[in-house]
Amino acid sequence: MEIRKVAVLGAGTMGHGIAQVCASSGFQVALGDVSDVQLAKAVEKVRGSLEKLASKGRLQGEVADVLGRLSVSSSMDSVLDGADLVIEAVPEKMELKLELFRVASAKAPAHAIFATNTSSLSVTEIAADTGRAERVVGLHFFNPVPVMELLEIVRGLSTDDATIEAAVAFAKRIGKDPVVVKDWPGFATSRLGIILGCEAIRMVEQGVASPADIDKAMKLGYRHPMGPLELTDLVGLDVRLAIMEHLFAELGEQFRPPALLRQMVRAGKLGRKSGEGFYTY
Ligand code: CAA
Questions:
Q1: Per the confidence metrics, is the pTM higher than 0.85?
Q2: Ligand 1: centre distance to CA 39 (Å)
């Protein structure tokens, strides 16, 4: 099946980046969100990122052409109208995702593939109520989306081969290098990435070293591009807490969220997006 129009639901950190890479690769993109303010911010972030890429000669075509392929709307009807691929990028709450796909099932074309950008939740469960479980797949993007090469494609229990083939072709078209993994809590990425972040926060609690020194140790000693606490600030402490809670319930004790993380989220210290996390921005 040829994908022409992509609908992206959710204009937050991940949604705007996903919309950007799709529009940059020639797809018509409709970005939807309940908040018009969030949509306006998303367009500005996309513009800023495109200009940065263009200034380094890394954008194919003109910024204006890419933006011309991106429309935004708070109306689900107009976002889903004619979509061949629907990518959900709303917060990591199963109920929210189920409700969104319930609505999308009624409004999107029958042939459309549904994809979830979940970092850890069950793609199989998300698919179950859509009436098209064989055409539901996980497309797990990484932040910052325009820069990160990986697309983790998650095969739910009912996902068919044609959908996986379409997902792999889509990944290549948007310039990503895919891996296809089984639907299992945390997949191949979050399960490992989260454990590192979890332990780093426990080490801060235990006073082993300062956040800056823990990050420095992993950058200089293990050649990670970013330390685990800087990365937690980039991803969002609330996002990481939600993933940990899910993996703790599904996989056990090693994912128990550190008390410090819970406290920081309660205090509104969510990382870069709130201006403060393990560092101040
Ligand atoms: N748009 C366009 N370009 C961007 C960008 C954006 N949003 N963000 C960064 N860049 C570009 C910069 O302009 C820069 O380009 P040049 O090399 O040409 O100067 C390049 O990317 C590198 O950026 P910086 O120089 O600012 O800083 P850096 O070298 O430290 O790289 C980084 C930044 C790419 C974020 C790097 O630190 C990195 O790879 N960090 C790890 C990120 C990571 O692990 N992400 C996964 C998080 S987990 C997740 O997302 C999934 C989940 O389930 C929650």
A1: yes
A2: 22
Tell which residue, 75, 2, 48, has the closest CA to residue 144. Answer: 48
HEC-encoded secondary structure of 14-54: HHHHHHHHHHHCCCEEEEECCCHHHHHHHHHHHHHHHHHHH
For 43-68, the pLDDT digits (tens) are: 999 999 999 999 999 998 899 999 99
Best residue among 59, 117, 147, 240 to mutate for probing ligand 1's pocket (most ligand atoms within 8 Å of CB) is: 147
pLDDT in tens, 247-259: 999 999 999 999 9
Give pLDDT tens digits for 78-107.
999 999 999 999 999 999 999 999 999 999
112 CA distance to ligand 1 middle (Å): 31
Q: Domain 190-266 is classified in which CATH homologous superfamily?
A: N-(1-d-carboxylethyl)-l-norvaline Dehydrogenase; domain 2 (1.10.1040.10)
Measured in Å, residue 196 CA sits from the centre of ligand 1 at 19
- Looking at domain 5-182, what is its CATH homologous superfamily? NAD(P)-binding Rossmann-like Domain (3.40.50.720)
